[in-house]
Q: What sequence folds into this?
């Protein structure tokens, strides 16, 4: 990395300059032809592709070719369970669910209770572990298919990961770890080892299915350092290189920055009472003018508006309605109060329905756990 930017697995700021990020990380922008190919294989379009909410990738073209050629494929993503889930977290999961349905793929979902325990001073292990289960309910509420969704909770399912992890660990030097993740002499050694486990999951499907499996990882670009190593060492371990597709982060409802638990008033949690979620939207910072008169005269700026972004990235399916909203804002005929009120009612309805499914999810949780479906991999002599 020539330039220093505040991104990386433990230092993700709100990235606005996605172009620059692509350069820094060396990922490729998603082209029309890749989007069309994915849509063709999926049999329909998705707003997050059309609007480039998912905007860059690595080796997606290779993954799609392998999928089309009939090779075994799978999806992999994860979550560091350090607290409650908000809309920014579920954004990539909504797309992942679509991929699962449309491409008929199994999903491996890693809950890194170990990572969050090791990283966050304030969290003890029972807490991060219980967030792993709480956050799993959000996957159920999104209606991931239980037979095809395999949740790995690191501290409990380590037997699935460890045989692959030792092989991974042997390929990675301490100097690579320092250079890739910025570890120093005072970093605890748990954190130094942790990346091995996140990388190992990208090879796990090949072990569990007993055949070469191509893996696609939908995730924020901040996770890229892991996959850079995963791609580098894959072939020497006899696994296909995992591919990635990266999403932009949902902005928080404040004046700047991604939706983040460090600013809870600007984040809508899946567990917020629906009317609280609506209230947060009503208090959101917008791209509007300070007064109604000025708004009518000058129009607002939807490009810098957290409310418009919520419509664009999650809540408005219909392209023509979205563009109507955009121009009505620009020309001053739509006022922020009205635009927010409409979003607030959509958010409220979403939360109400989501929470009904989430509450019912507790009884189904065991069906999603990897340990209820697979036995631990026995390494064959490769
Ligand atoms: N490290 C990720 C986080 O802090 C969690 C994670 C584990 C993950 N495996 C993943 C995220 C795969 C995306 C894809 O949130």
A:
């Amino acid at each position: 990395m020539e330039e220093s930017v505040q991104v990386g697995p433990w230092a993700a700021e709100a990235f606005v300059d996605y172009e620059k990020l692509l350069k820094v990380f060396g990922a490729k922008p998603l082209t029309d032809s890749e989007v069309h190919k994915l849509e063709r294989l999926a049999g329909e379009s998705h707003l997050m592709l059309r609007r480039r909410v998912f905007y860059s990738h690595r080796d997606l073209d290779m993954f799609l070719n392998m999928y089309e050629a009939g090779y075994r494929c799978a999806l992999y993503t994860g979550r560091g369970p350090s607290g409650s889930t908000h809309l920014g977290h579920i954004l990539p999961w909504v797309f992942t669910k679509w991929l699962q349905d449309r491409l008929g793929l199994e999903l491996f979902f890693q809950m890194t209770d170990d990572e969050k325990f090791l990283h966050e001073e304030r969290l003890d292990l029972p807490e991060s572990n219980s967030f792993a289960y709480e956050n799993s309910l959000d996957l159920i509420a999104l209606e991931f298919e239980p037979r095809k969704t395999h949740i790995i909770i690191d501290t409990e399912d380590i037997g699935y990961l460890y045989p692959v992890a030792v092989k991974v660990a042997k390929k990675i030097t301490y100097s690579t770890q320092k250079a890739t993740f910025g570890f120093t002499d005072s970093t605890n050694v748990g954190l130094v080892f942790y990346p091995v486990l996140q990388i190992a999951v990208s090879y796990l499907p090949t072990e569990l299915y007993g055949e070469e499996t191509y893996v696609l990882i939908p995730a924020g670009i901040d996770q890229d350092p892991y996959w850079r190593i995963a791609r580098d060492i894959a072939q020497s371990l006899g696994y296909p290189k995992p591919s990635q597709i990266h999403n932009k982060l949902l902005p928080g409802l404040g004046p700047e920055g991604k939706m983040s638990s460090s600013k809870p008033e600007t984040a809508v949690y899946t567990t917020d009472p629906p009317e609280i979620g609506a209230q947060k939207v009503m208090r959101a910072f917008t791209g509007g003018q300070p007064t109604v008169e000025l708004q009518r005269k000058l129009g607002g700026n939807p490009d810098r508006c957290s409310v418009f972004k919520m419509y664009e990235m999650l809540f408005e399916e219909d392209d023509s309605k979205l563009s109507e909203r955009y121009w009505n804002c620009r020309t001053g005929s739509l006022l922020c109060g009205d635009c927010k009120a409409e979003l607030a009612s959509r958010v409220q309805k979403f939360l109400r329905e989501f929470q009904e499914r989430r509450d019912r999810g507790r009884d189904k949780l065991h069906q999603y756990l990897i340990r209820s479906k697979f036995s631990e991999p026995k390494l064959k002599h490769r």
Observations:
- The radius of gyration is 21 Å.
- The pocket of tryptophan is lined by residues 9, 76-80, 110, 112, 115, 198, 217, 219, 223 (CB under 6 Å).
